[in-house]
Amino acid sequence: MRPPVLLVIAHGSRDPRHAATVDALVRRVRSIRPRLVVETGFLDFNAPSVPRVLERLAAQGTEDVIALPLLLTRAFHAKSDIPSVLREASARLPRLRIHRAEVLGPSPLLLAALHRRLWEAGLQEADKRSTGLVLASAGSTDPEAIAVIAEIARELRSAGWCAVRPAFASALLPRTDEVVRSLRADGCERVAVAPYVIAPGRLPDRIAEGARQADVLADVLGASPELAQLLLERYEQALPALTAGRVAVTA
């Protein structure tokens, strides 16, 4: 029996850098597991759409798909958009079994990817004690997502940074520039901004704009080795339910 196809579901963006980053991440996943069929579908803006990918797979005789949301938290897209798209596809394609994997975060691999980007931007382990860190996320009004970001900030703080504070590019305050100023005012020798986002786009650009007065701006998580490994980890975690015949396409 062929292993289930891994369908990575990305949000999509008018910014071409978004799709290019998703493609690079998927290529890295394929390089790790060359025998695994890995497809990409987008919710909006980019092609192919999730329904079109599922229709093609069904037409090719695929029986099992693990749909993995390329999301860091369980917010609106994870709880509403993606379940709705998958339910509709499942109803139209009854021979295709679809199981929805968990979102990517939280995970130690994401923290490792975030630290990788900070080291690549020029920081060193020894700099942590004197560096205030802005954990800059896209932002959400979902309480679960907000709680996850707060917990990640606490974990980073316990890892030895001078101070760690969240900032948001939308939906919530404070913004990145506000947190940069507050960390500097509180006596941190330097301030670094760590975008807790996967791919470039409008909101990451807003984070970068707010980081102009920071000493260090890390890159987005992108096609990091840790993120690629995490996709495969979520795929493996989803396999038992699908193997047992329990299809989960609802929230």
From TrEMBL:
InterPro entries (UniProt xref): CbiX-like, Sirohydro_Cobaltochel/CbiX
Pfam families to which the protein is assigned, alphabetical: CbiX (PF01903)
UniProt entry keywords in alphabetical sequence: Lyase, Metal-binding
Protein name as it appears in the record: Sirohydrochlorin chelatase
Taxonomic lineage: Bacteria, Bacillati, Actinomycetota, Actinomycetes, Kitasatosporales
